[in-house]
Specification:
Elements (H helix, E strand, L loop, with lengths): L18 E2 L4 E6 L11 E7 L14 E14 L2 E6 L3 E4 L5 E4 L6 E7 L8
Antiparallel strand pairs: 1-2, 2-3, 3-8, 4-5, 4-6, 4-7, 4-8
Length: about 120
């Protein structure tokens, strides 16, 4: 059996088709939805436009965020974090969280999940 995900691969962000959601767009690089269908690594880029609030949600895996551009708020586990370019946020599994942008800034985030996950909301 040929396991394509086990082979090294190089690609550019622009080669990943954007998946459009109600509050954001996402480019899934790795994972079950990714350009590379990896089993244990989920990584991608998400961008929220101005004046957006994501659904309050949680995952059954750990998540880490790195702000690539812009600024906003990450509310996680009842704590509000004002984030900007260069900031990291760690979200433990099963922790309710949301991302909020204001009217003057969008936010672009690199996300990594510590396990298998499928996002459809």
């Amino acid at each position: 059996m040929d396991n394509e995900y086990l082979k090294p691969k190089k690609f550019n962000e622009k080669e990943i088709k954007k998946k459009i959601f109600q509050d954001r767009w996402v480019r899934f690089a790795f994972g079950s939805q990714g350009l590379v269908n990896s089993q244990n690594l989920n990584l991608g880029i998400v961008e929220f436009d101005k004046d957006k609030t994501s659904l309050m949600h949680s995952h059954d895996v750990e998540e880490s965020l790195y702000v690539l551009a812009g600024k906003g708020i990450v509310e996680a586990g009842g704590t509000i974090y004002h984030v900007k370019k260069g900031d990291f946020v760690y979200i433990p599994k099963n922790t309710e969280h949301t991302i909020i942008t204001g009217n003057n800034s969008r936010i672009r985030i690199l996300f990594v999940f510590g396990g298998e996950i499928h996002i459809d909301y």
